[in-house]
Amino acid sequence: MSGYTIDALLRKAHELEASDLHFIVGEVPAFRIDGKIIKSKLEPVTQDDMIKAINTIAPVSMKDKIFKSYDSDFPYEIEGLSRFRVNLAMSFGYHSMTVRLVPYDIPTFEQLKLPKTIEKFSELENGIVLVTGVAGSGKSTTIASILNHINNTHKKHIITVEDPIEYVYKSNKSIFTQRQIGIDTANFVDGLKYALRQDPDVILIGEIRDMETIQSALHAAETGHLVFATLHTFNAIQTINRVLSFFPPSERETIRHQFAEVYRGSVSQKLLPNAKGKGRIPAVELLYSTPTIKDFILKDELEEIYKLVNKGSYDDMITFNNCLFELYKRGFITKEVALDNSDNKNELMHYMHGVYSGSEGLN
């Protein structure tokens, strides 16, 4: 057995400002720092190390289930240091562990370097807002910053249904009820069903994974609640298509109308290496629903949405390419990073060569 403990590795991850710790049998412990995997110089993880780590950090109520399951998610905390989101999976018959660091302090829009106009989502009274991106793109942190802004500025009841709970909120002007799948409620559908009976104003769904969950989310939005949820999509248009794709073709026209009525917008984001030094910076696409955009959704003319927003910060909205260009122009990211992360490199090259004439999209 190696000389390190899982708690010692998590403390090291916190010290290094890592986003994740990878703990895999047969591999040396590794950290993700500024988006890159950095291997430690420690001994490879043994099966005994893994069993000891699981017994150290797994909730007592879940231990029997964990050793019989292929995949498990649960939270962990080192008091006074940080919270963690733990995922256990099987690889070649052995457990592998990925631990995401979840800081106690919820950052503000300014600290995250998000466009100030994202604050609009916290002023909504009802509807559904989708925050999207690949794993590790900062979706949970962006939603946490929005919910905490609501907490600090409005008197509301906010319910979260998560798997597992990540950020823990301290009630300020608002109050929170946080529920974890497998501990506080059976699944997302049940969590949403019963949330509607708990006098909520705002509901967070940790992740939309299936048709039943998106149906429940749309129902909650229709009944006058403000719903936030995450999806693994890359941009606003793909997000709308993804919502519709959960349903069989025979139901999509009905769902399109239902979705158009309650859709309030989306935030799609990527985390990019900061050219000015350590850390990463978000590139975001912001879409706010307007009567025109609602009409494009109803007519299934989604490409027209991109053309509208791309004309130049229409109604405070911004495309990925607009954002990438502004970040590049201000020296926050390199040209290579901007182009590597663009969905339309030719368009972005035109911007860089002076063809772009729209107004700036970032505050």
On the 0 to 100 scale, the average pLDDT is: 93
Order of strands across the biggest sheet? 9-8-10-11-7-12-13
Helix content: 25-40%
Number of helices: 14
Radius of gyration: 21 Å
Quick one: overall form? globular
Oligomer state equals single chain
Count of distinct strands: 13
The profile of the biggest β sheet is: 7 strands, mixed
Computed structural class: alpha/beta
- β-strand percent reads 15-25%
Q: Uncertain runs with pLDDT below 50, 5 residues or more?
A: 357-363
Cα-to-Cα separation, first versus last residue? 52 Å
Order of helices and strands: HEEEHHEEEHEHEEHEHEHHEEHHHHH
Your description of this structure?
This protein has 363 residues and is an alpha/beta fold. It is built from 14 helices and 13 strands. The chain has helices at residues 6-15, 47-57, 63-66, 109-112, 139-153, 188-195, 211-222, 236-245, 252-262, 291-298, 302-309, 320-329, 335-340, 345-352; strands spanning 20-24, 30-33, 36-39, 72-78, 82-91, 94-102, 127-132, 157-162, 175-180, 202-205, 226-231, 263-273, 280-288. The strands form two sheets. The protein has a seven-stranded mixed sheet with strand order 9-8-10-11-7-12-13, sandwiched between helices. A hairpin with a 5-residue loop joins strand 1 and strand 2 (30-33). Helix 9 packs antiparallel against helix 10. The chain starts with 5 loop residues before the first helix and ends in an 11-residue tail after the last helix.
